[in-house]
Amino acid sequence: MSYDHRAIEAKWQKRWETESTFEVTEDPTRPKFYNVCMYPYPSGALHQGHIRNYTFGDLLTRYKTMRGFNVLSPMGWDSFGLPAENAAIESGAHPRINTESQIVTMTAQIKELGSMYDWTRELASHDPAFYRWDQWLFLELWDRGLAYKAEAPVNWCPKDQTVLANEQVIDGLCERCDTPVIRRNLAQWFFKITDYSDRLLADLEVLEDWPERVRTMQRNWIGRSEGAVFTIEIEGGGSFDVFTTRPDTIFGMTFCVLAPEHPLVEWLIAGGEHEAAVRDYVAASARISELERLAEGGKTGVFTGVYAINPVNEARVPIYVADYVLMGYGTGAIMAVPGQDQRDWEFARIHGLDIIRTVDPPEDWEGDAYLGDGPTINSGLLDGLYQDDAKRRIIEWLEERGIGKAEVTYRLRDWLISRQRYWGCPIPMINCPNCGLVPVPRDQLPVLLPEIEDYLPKGMSPLAADEDFVNTTCPLCDGPARRETDTMDTFVDSSWYYFRYADAHNDEAIFDPAKPAYWMPLDQYIGGIEHAVLHLLYARFITKFLYDIGLSTVEEPFTRLFTQGMITLGGSKMSKSKGNVVDPVGLFASHGADALRLFHLFIGPPPDDTAWNPNGVDGTRRFLERVWRTVTEDHIFADRAESAEDRELMGLAHRTVRKVTEDIDRFHFNTAVPALMILSNALADYVAGSPRKEVFDGVVTTLLLLLSPMTPHVAHELWERLGYGSMLATEPWPDWDESLAREETVTMVIQVNGKVRDRISVSSDIEPGEAERLALASEKARAWFDGGQVETVVARPPRLVNIVVG
RNA sequence: GCCGGAGUGGAGAAAUUGGCAAACUCGAUGGACUCAAAAUCCAUUGUCCGCAAGGGCUUGCGGGUUCGAGUCCCGCCUCCGGCACCA
User: Which bases of strand B sit closer than 7 A to a protein CB?
Assistant: First the structure.
């Protein structure tokens, strides 16, 4: 091999570090560019996904720096969370010891990649200096009623004896042990993200530089539905509210359904003849998993023995309890309209209930419930109206009588942030037998996570067993009290860490608002698609909250989001369990960081999944070898006047600058790399002929400038060897000259009836008339239209002329 | 079921606006150099017919618009991802 990648990579990494090339401060005189790769969980080893992520991020950091931006690119660690605890349970080592040694290992690996960060801003979420401000943020939310504790049905794994986050439930099974998850009512902590539903939805429209599919996923997740709520009276007294998106079908209500967890159920059945049966059903539905519920197929449910009165026509309809109605959505109760709702139709069929159509289906309609539009029937005042008018009319009717009103409902639930786990940020609250829930005073933060011996999950937080931690005094009455023992979801940490980078060492405040006022919002955020909803939605929510309390000047944190594709091998995502992992660290040793980086840029479109090619890094290394040889070998330069060949190579260099610049700006790295290969190959051909020194020098400097964000070590080393004293990383990005980028001659295609029949070389500024004349004069083309009548000639100089023959 | 995204050589892919389909890289085959190998370099490499010159066909399938369609329109098929009893 012609260059020693180990030596030059170590040399330049050290230079960038000792010269603080990528350390920045606020500088109002320059345009800023805030560039963040999602901070990693410190698993202990970089995988190809990290490499891809940081290669893209570093490319932008270096490119934008050369473009004159004040670029902030920080790095940190998402170092709390279940994986650390699981690893600790397996290895016996304390999560903190494990985590911190893995941070050391991964930091070294990231530096080996040559990816440059402002390490002075490094943070780690398990550091008390960081999570102290998680606790502070929690208290800010508490003060405004946006953090609360409530009993709620949660995902419970009976084997692991712990609650699971939604994202830890895969197809109804626990992600760790594949046990079907059941729902249990437990007192849990929530952040009231639902107060922000409308803003989170509306502002998606502003995020034009986000991938459309992420915006769509968030839209679906928030799940806005327009409809109405109205009150239904119970025969014999009492009432309940229902939400519907189809108030126009109210005359078709033939029964009502309450969710099994609905608070009214107990009261309704008390002392009645169906009491035992309903109670059994409610108990059974709490016991079985979501998976079993759906697997049962038919819709189950029981009659309560009680009737409700349809407010529009006084019809007496039975009230059922059924688990196809969910307590967590709408009001937990529905009017059932089997004629226009397929789920209600199925339930009505199984339980022998009436079906009344209130929308006239088309004549050829053969299905069950008819969900489409049509004239309303069997509906008194609504008869003949189509859906939109009928909705409007009935909502007016309900409002006039004070029975109901138009209502918007969201699918989004409040964010459950408490975890019965050890390795997380303690929730800063105290339970006092006299005063109730009392926040820990801010001057007593942080509530430190104690170092304990036994952190195995037992159904309650391991912290609960630590008497020294639990027992405290009430800040209000000084009486004995007990601390909250739950810890926070790690998504709390990641919802604001990018603010902290702006003022990472502040121990007086979460941050000085003036600093993020300069840096925020992120100009670029790069990470995996798996965070499309959770992290990115929580971060948007917390940013809006910080805006509301005056700490943020922006309502949206991430101006431009990029989600990278996965690397696959053998048709599936690289993972240890599939045994198809290609360790990137080994490639640092064998091929070098530059060759690996270049391969990740080259392999395919950055947003798409792409297959790993075992020989691919050989290819990018070979390319760098050729560049190295072309630049470093001695050439015999000719002393002669400028020729067309010189102009052609210089023109190609200008076109390459244009192409690479445009491609980087639109994230098409996979097409920028071939442009550099073409330029480099042309340069190699050029020096094999009769090169002029000025042309060679000009093209080589252009090539190295363009390569420097992609393969920084090789580019810097060659730059230095050519005798340039400056630091390449801070050289200005090259410009191109449109007039020099023009090709002098181009190949013009001559078609006859759309088929290519000849190609001729013409001047690139050829006139349409001249192009047409040359085309008609072409011998080869003539052979195809001689004897026919030329109807039209379509001239698109200088690329193409199409002769249309009858 | 609903909502996204995608289907182009042996593989990864390219083709900013409708204008030479397959750039670039990998792999494969043949050759040069070498005692030999590695490395490097050169050539060929969508497919069919043909000795060749040359020609036909070709971007998942079927239609359409257009002088001209991988690209636009209509209908379908397949794959991937997300959501899924959300009233």
Answer: 3-5, 11-16, 19-21, 23-27, 39-41, 55-57, 67-69, 80-83, 85-87
